[in-house]
Amino acid sequence: PAGVGWPCAVSRWLSLSPPCPTPPTHPPPAATNYLFRASPTSFIMLSSHHKTIPGRSIPSSMTRKIFKRGLFSLLLLLLCLLIFISLMYAGLIWPNNLFVSNYKVRGLDVSNHQKQIDWRSVARTGEYSFVFIKATEGITYRDAYFQANWRGTKTYGLLRGAYHFYTQDLSGTEQANNFISVVPQEPGMLPPVLDLEVIGNDRKAMIREIKSFLDRLEQHYGMKPIIYTDSDRYIAYVKGNFDNYTIWINSSLLPVQWSGVNTWAFWQYCSRGRVSGITEFVDFNAFYGNRDELNAMTKQPSA
């Protein structure tokens, strides 16, 4: 053992004892990488410059507390998420409400899904300046509530326009004629709308028929139509082909600023709105400009 060297040297000089054994030598510890090993009860660290350091045990009671806290946090997060989704489904809150706050001119779009609407109650809210009303779909369908909605919005002083739900793989001109047979030309109406929510089997044919539809409406009403669509159809059909048309973009779940569409005039920002006078959910929309700019889009009386 260490510390016996000098007594042994004296003993040998005095010949009082046989030579003392040489203290054993130990090779230096081999270099090792840093290692970390964890178990429910201990932590052990190995260093290239130190011997093994026994880890400190974690009491099992502390392990249970950590587990319970983590589980509680996870359950709380899931509960908050469930509440948020439930409020969205009920139409009480909507993610885009924060992002639409800068746009003060608001409106609705309606169809037979909203059934009979009390337009007097809607107008009394004072929150909505315009309404787009479904008129037709394809080459034969006519919305059963269009005439009542068209009259009601005019009676209570709401700017209104009509839209056609486009059907793929059908003649654009025939679809336009269906729309023209239902929607009258009136001073103060907003431009007619192409509602583009479908994907055609043949892209070139789809673009050709869309152009025929838009040209026919512009010829009849003397107004350049509005195109309603989402970001996917915008990229597939509108961008690069119909850039000089007014765009009404559907971006209900995400801010329109994230849609990649920078030239929009109308933004459908909510699909589950609640309005006095409408029993069903209804779409909320915003106009990019002020009321005067919206009025300037309407059909003007003939000279």
Descriptive report:
The chain has 303 residues and is α/β, with parallel strands linked by helices. The chain contains eight helices and eleven strands. The strands form two sheets. It has an eight-stranded mixed beta barrel. Strands 1-2 form a two-stranded antiparallel ribbon. Helix 7 links the parallel strand 8 and strand 9 (246-250). It is globular. The model is unreliable at 1-18 and 31-52 (pLDDT under 50).
Keyword list:
single chain, 303 residues, alpha/beta, eight-stranded mixed β-barrel, two-stranded antiparallel sheet, 8 helices, 22% strand, globular, disordered N terminus
> Could you name the ranges where pLDDT drops below 50 across 5 or more consecutive residues?
1-18, 31-52
Would you list the SSEs in sequence order as H and E?
HEEHEHEEHEHEHEHEEEH
Question: Roughly what fraction of the amino acids lie in strands?
Answer: 15-25%
Number of strands: 11
Provide the spatial order of strands within the biggest beta sheet.
3-4-6-7-8-9-10-11
Count of helical regions: 8
> What form results from the Cα inertia axes?
globular
Structural class per helix/strand content?
alpha/beta
Radius of gyration: 38 Å
Percent range for helical residues? 25-40%
Give the N-terminus to C-terminus distance in angstroms.
Answer: 119 Å
Specify the biggest β-sheet.
8 strands, mixed, barrel
Mean pLDDT: 82
